[in-house]
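Q: How would the structure tokens look for this protein?
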Amino acid sequence: MKKIIMILLSVSFNFVFCQEELVKDNNLKNKTKNWFESFSIRGYTQIRYNRLLETNENLKCEQCDRSIGKDGGFFIRRSRIIFSGQINEQVFFYIQPDFASSPSADRLHFVQLRDAYFDVGVDPNNEFRFRIGQSKVPYGFENMQSSQNRLTLDRNDALNSAVSNERDLGVFFYWAPKAKRKLLSQLVASGLKGSGDYGILGFGIYNGQTANNVELNDNPHIVARATYPFEYKNQIFEFGVQAYTGDFVISKTSLTNGVKYKSDLNYTDQRAAATIVMYPKPFGFQAEYNIGKGPEYNKTTDSIEVQNLYGGYAMVNYMAKYKNHTFIPFVKYQHYNGGKKHERDARSYDINELEIGVEWQPAKQFELVACYTISDRRYEDFGLRNNRQQGNFLRLQAQVNF
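A: Here is the predicted structure in token form.
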């Protein structure tokens, strides 16, 4: 009898215990998450050296990397921390400061705000959403691609000259079906060098003076973009088109004494571009080209005038994996003829450049890139006339992801 009683008590105890655990599990499942439970902190830092095998120390690139050329040494290109979180089912925030911004060649490591925006979903699945604040302007695949994920060390001059630092302050509307949003996110998470989720269709209104600069006229820029990623057999492709229009105001602080310019400093700023991407599985291909018109220095008249611009790039790459290591060799060629509205006197450019390199990832937390650059750059302003620089150099970058 005692044995029977003990067995019954044991069964009863186990039953009660299991019921209590089941209730706890259900309570945990039903508990609503607080916003700070989905709060995320991540970031990355890039250290560069550009002067190995250098043949011309006078070859510079102000917009891409200020440590290229004479007096350049070891350089912190970026050091960023990203704060983000889904604070509500339909409200998401994203803030990204950079602790290594360089406003000039001799002033390094300033803290500057890169992104500060929130997404507001219109529907339960957030297929329709508004992005409000300072964020990337949806123009150009490589422009929107994070520097943390991008294969080459710098963005191409042709499309990147459209928006300095790729960002501005405004309101952008994005739409993408749930399945496409998932695919766009996977292209980044899987290491295939995606551009991120900027929707299938995008439309926006923004200041037009670029990030961290005040608006200088009453005419906002307008941008629109359409892209479509899809899977075909074992490959993933993406095709896109984008365009923007507005008036850019040249800052008086960027003018050289003696240069001629319009009295109101307002210049037409319009572009359109096309994008083709085949993600590296294992072979990859990426190309973009844009045309338009904008302010550019004319040395014949010593004036800043609205002139035509054109240019783009093409890149082939290959992804190879060996045990826990990932290798991505690449070859990229770019050309650009036009002005850079953000630089002194809307500096005039004619660029032809070839890059041959490889990215090595021994772990997701660390990347090393070596890139040999063969460059031919003509860049001229009122104080820098007949300036054509040709040269080659080997670039190295170490990146840690955290």
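Confidence is low (pLDDT under 50) at residues 1-30.

The first strand starts at residue 40 and ends at 52.

Upvote if useful.
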